[in-house]
Known about the structure:
By secondary structure, this protein is an alpha/beta fold. It has an 8-stranded parallel barrel, surrounded by 5 helices. A 5-stranded parallel β-sheet has the order 18-17-16-19-20, sandwiched between helices. A 3-stranded mixed β-sheet has the order 9-13-12, covered by helices on one side. The model is unreliable at 110-135 (pLDDT under 50).
Amino acid sequence: MWDQLDRLKYADEREVVRALLAAQPLTPARRFHVCDEAEELVRAARAQSERKGVVESFLQEFSLGTREGLALMCLAEAVLRIPDADTRDKLIAEKIGSADWASHLGQSDSLFVNASTWGLMLTGRLVDVDTQAKQNLGGFLTQLAGRIGEPVIRRAVAVAVRMMGEQFVLGRTIEDALARANRENILGSFDMLGEGARTATDAERYECIYADAIEAVGRAASNAGPEQGHGISVKLSALCPRYEATQEPRVWSELYPRLKRLMLLGAKHNLNLAIDAEEADRLVLSLNLVERLCTEPELASWRGLGVVVQAYQKRARNVVAALAELAQRHQRRLMIRLVKGAYWDSEIKRAQVAGRPDYPVFTTKPATDLSYLVCARDLIAASPHLYPQFATHNAHTLAAVRLMASEKNVPIEHQRLHGMGEALYQAARTRYGNIMVRTYAPVGGHEDLLPYLVRRLLENGANTSFVHALLDERFAAEEVVRDPIGLVEAHPDRHAKIPTPANLYGSTRRNPLGRDFSMADERAQSAKAVQSLKQEKLIAGPIIGGKLRTPGAAQPVRSPAARDTLVGHVHDASVADLDAAIKAARTSQQAWDQAGGIGRAATLRAMGDALEAQTERLVALLALEAGKTLNDAVAEVREAADFCRYYAHLAEMQFAIPETLTGPTGEVNKLLLQGRGVFACISPWNFPLAIFTGQIAAALAAGNAVLAKPAEQTPLIAAEAVRLYHKAGLPPDLLALLPGPGETVGAGLIAHPGIDGVAFTGGTDTAQRINRALAARPGPIIPFIAETGGLNGMFIDTSALKEQVVDDVIVSAFGSAGQRCSALRVLFVPQDSADDLLATL
């Protein structure tokens, strides 16, 4: 039932926004009323200065837009993660001395945030921060470190950062969190801190952590029920190291049994267990798991199963509708926490890098706020099948959902982050009576805090965020609560500075379209292309003048991933083929050179388009002949197309009309670039399409003809690329394919007097042999462009997040089966964190 959600993942933002505006969650009169209510909430919250949280004070003064905010984050990292004193001392000293602390002195009404208080905490009341020190706090702290010693500074900073950590974390253990929640009269949804699992041991450990937390909360709840008692938020990525759509069988065999065990435990204690939202690529997979849970007879009477929905996803409204239908169909009640979303920056970046058709999230904040209001109305309308839980720190959103719920007489729950929003919700209690407010409260040790802290600061730390402005008197209340519907109506388009991924490079070239294998349709399309290609009888051989030659006996080409799979056959080039190719190339090169950069660019762009149009077929061929994974193969096709467009742009810029140079009066000097003649391009098997195509594109862009010798292992891909070049309009004589061994065909090319230049990518030893052979030739010096292998190392310091290190090491070392020239060869690990890191690897 979730296939339609897949298809809506990259919907055109303007169309989605138009649909949301047409839905009109609030009439004009109600919009005015909501803005008035929100203004009153802001004023009331500002009047409660004692309710202003430390976190809000911190975000207000030290936003991530300041050097000081970033410096404090680095200080937090130094204390919370780095195990060795020497590294901590160096980082603390660097960050203390590199920022303009004086500009923040006295700017906040929070003692914690004021830089003078940082001085007090750093010195443990040993030194008074006088006026002179306040004028140059960086220098003062540097001098202080010299006088009383860096270890003292380190311990003092540790105390300060732990104080900050306590504002974000409710307790180190679930027992601590429950005790504090009772003392502070907090109704919580406890989030057990920690990153996603990378190993089976991680997943088992996280299941135990969740199970223990559910048992502890269950004992404390005394069967209060999912609405009145504490709850738990569960991250599915913590329960399986391969929680990915492309690994769906593993998700069902490994993750689902763990999830079901936890849900049965939650049902036993009648708690609210919410499945947290994560990246957009995992949405449909998580909803499939929810649907399976709804069919479990042991969970039939439980009303505490919860799902988190992110309003910043363009398909959020469809998710709410699908969950309502699911609950109705299975006669279940689902608790739905509506949030705005915490991964916006990474969703944008991932879509750009991967060449998605659009973004899965809205590019503007008002559009997200509008989406939230429409989803809220739909959620309230779906009661009692869905129980609405609204997580927000935005006064306008809070006022709007209260109005919509009161008009429908539907009970709702509000949610806030621990350490934030206290003043706002106290103002709401005063205005609306005893409203239900649940606090999303992290639980865990300080070593697990930083990733959560970073997410919260990225989510709320921008100086344009509502949290940043809520309690800041410098922002007028009416400005803080501007109607998002009106803002979207005034500017319904996407963000002006965030183009679609295809237009990432502006007017220079189009970003090639990628593939998203988290989507079932795209996986099926790729599988179909692989099966179709297996039925073909592929043949490669010398291609000269656009015609395939088949000299000598054909050699079989087998898949390196499955040696019993015959992909096709290849005929090696002969000496006669080499001579014929050079003759044809030399006769056609001059006309090609005279066509100029603009003329050549048109053909290269057509080749880029042809590659992109044949993505499925080329991906299948790369998978079969080169043993590429599908994602690696897609990246290679995109790189090949990008090479063509990149060099087309350079051809236009560098090979246009001659450039007139300045010189003495009466003297005219002009700079004119032109092709050298015939280039031999020798490419490797690890990137049999991208490097093969890129070498050719560069030589063609500069006005040369090309003889291309592919790696012996991948002649079929090379033949496909050459045919595409010819179909794209390249004169056939300009590009010849000469497959065969390096010892014969490659050596013959290098030694041939008709070759005017060589481009080579491969091993250093081979490059040195080519260099010596070219140097020994009589006549002009032949240009030699060589890209060879390296010994690449990665240096890990003790501040690095283990999970991120493991991800990056795996990708760098084993992407393209470890056969990239940039692949990781040596990993340098600090002694202090080596054991845990290596065990995880």
